[in-house]
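Write out the 3D structure for:
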Amino acid sequence: MLDLGALVLGGLVVLPLLWLVWRGLSRPEEALLPVLQNNQTLRITLRSALLATLVGGLCVAVALPAAWLTHTTDMPGAKTFRWLLNLPLAVPSYVSGFVVVALAGPGGLVSLLTRALGLPPPAPWGPWTGTVLALLWSWPMALLLLQAALRRLDPHTWEAARALGSSPAQAFLRVVLPQLRPAMAGGFLLVALYVLSDFGAVSLMRFESLSYVIYVRYRGFVGREEAIGLALLLSLLALLVVLGRRWLHGQHAARSARQVGRPWPTITLGAWRWPAFLFCLGLALYGVGLPLLVLLSWLVGFDQASVDLSPLSTVARESMSVAVIAACVALVLASFLAWQRRSGHPAIARATYLLVHAGYALPGIVVALALVGFSIRATPALYQTTALLVFAYMVRFLPLALHALMEGLDAQSPRLVEAAQTLGDSPWRAWWRVVLPNLLPACAAALIAVWISVLKELPATLLLSPPGFRSLATRIWSLTEDALYSAAALPILALLALAVVGLLVQGRR
C-alpha cells in the first residue's frame, strides 16, 4: 500500500507533462508541425539556450571567488558576507527586472545621474543586456553549491601544495580548483535551468525566450495550439539539463561522500584584503543594496491617490495564506515519500524520486499551461480553484520539501526504528514516536523552502489563480507591466521582507 501510494503520487506530479505529450501527439498538425516548420522556432530556442549559457557562466564566475574569499581567507567581514551574498535568492526575477528597468529606463536613475552631471544621455539597454543583468541575481544558486563543496573539501591538499613551494594562486589553480569543478558545473546547470524556466525578467524586457513566447501564444487569439508544441520543446530542454545535472552528481557522489571536511586554515590575503572586500561589497550592493535603493527612490514619489492600489495587507494576507497551505500540503506529501523511501521497496522509491523531479524540472509556465488545458477538458470543476493552484505548486516545489526531509533522515540511524519495532511498535507508530521528533528542524526547513518559493512564483499563479485572488507576485507583475513603478515599490518591499525573513530563519535551522 505504501509503494502504491508513492507511485500514484509520482504519477500525479508528472500529469502536466503527460497531458502535454498526449495533447501534442493527438493533434500534431496543430501543436507540433507548425512549431517544427516555423523558422522562428530554432531562433527562439537558440536565444533561450544562449541566454541560459551566458547567465550560468557569469554566475559561476561571480560565485567562485566569492565562495573562496568568504570561506577561507582573512578578508574583513568574511562571515557576514557568507550569508549576505546569498540574500539575492529572495529577489524574484520580475523584481530584478523591475530594478533594471528603473535604472536604465526613461527617467531612470542612470538618466537622472547623467543629466545632473551634464553628461550625454546613455544609450538605451537592449533586451539582451537588460535580461542578463536581471537574471544575474541568481548567482547564489551557484554560490551555495560552491560553499558546500568547500566545507566538504579537505584542506590537507592545499597545505601540502603550499609546503612544496606553490604560491597561494598556484595552489588554488592546481589543487583546489580541479576539486571544485563538479560544484561549478552543478551550479552552472542549476542556474541554466532557472534561466530556461524564467518568465518574469524576460517578460519585462520583452526578450523572446521560449517561456515568454509560450505566454504570448497562449494569451493570443492565434497560435494557442502552438503554445503546446513550444511548451514540449521547453520541457525537453529543461529535462536535458536535469539529466545532465543528475549524471554529474552521480559521477561525483561517491567521492564527495568519502570526503570529510575539517576547518580550513585562515589564508592571509595581505595587500589583497581590501580589494577582496571591495569585490564582495560590490556584489552585496548590487544584489541587495541596489534593489533597496531603487525601491526606496520610487517609493518617495508614490502618490496613492493617483493609483488604484489594492490594500497591501489584503494582498499580503492572501499570498501568505495560500503559501502556508501549499507548504503544509508539501510537507505531508514529502513526509509520505520520505517514509516510503526509508521503508518501502527501493526500486519504487527510485522511480518515485525520478517522477517527482521530472515535475520539478518543468518551468512554471509549462505547468500552468498544461493544467489549464487539462482542467478545462477533464475536470472543469477544478478550473481556477485554489485546489488546482496548490496542485501546481506541488508539481513545482514538492522536491524542495523532500530534499529537506531526506537530509534530516540521513542524519538518523535506521536502527532506531528497528529498535522501536522490536519493542512492539508498528511501522507507523515507530515513525511517529521515534523519527518525527528528530525531524522537526528538517520539517521547518521544508516548510520555509516551499513557502518562499510559492510567494515568489509568478507564471503558475498568473494563469491558475481563482477569480478575485490577488498575490504579491501577480500584483507586482501587473503594476510593472503598466509601468506603475512607484505603486509597485511597496508590494515588492513586502515580498522581499517576507522572503528575507524566511531565508534567515531557514539559515538558522
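The chain has two domains: 1-31+306-509, 34-91+131-297.
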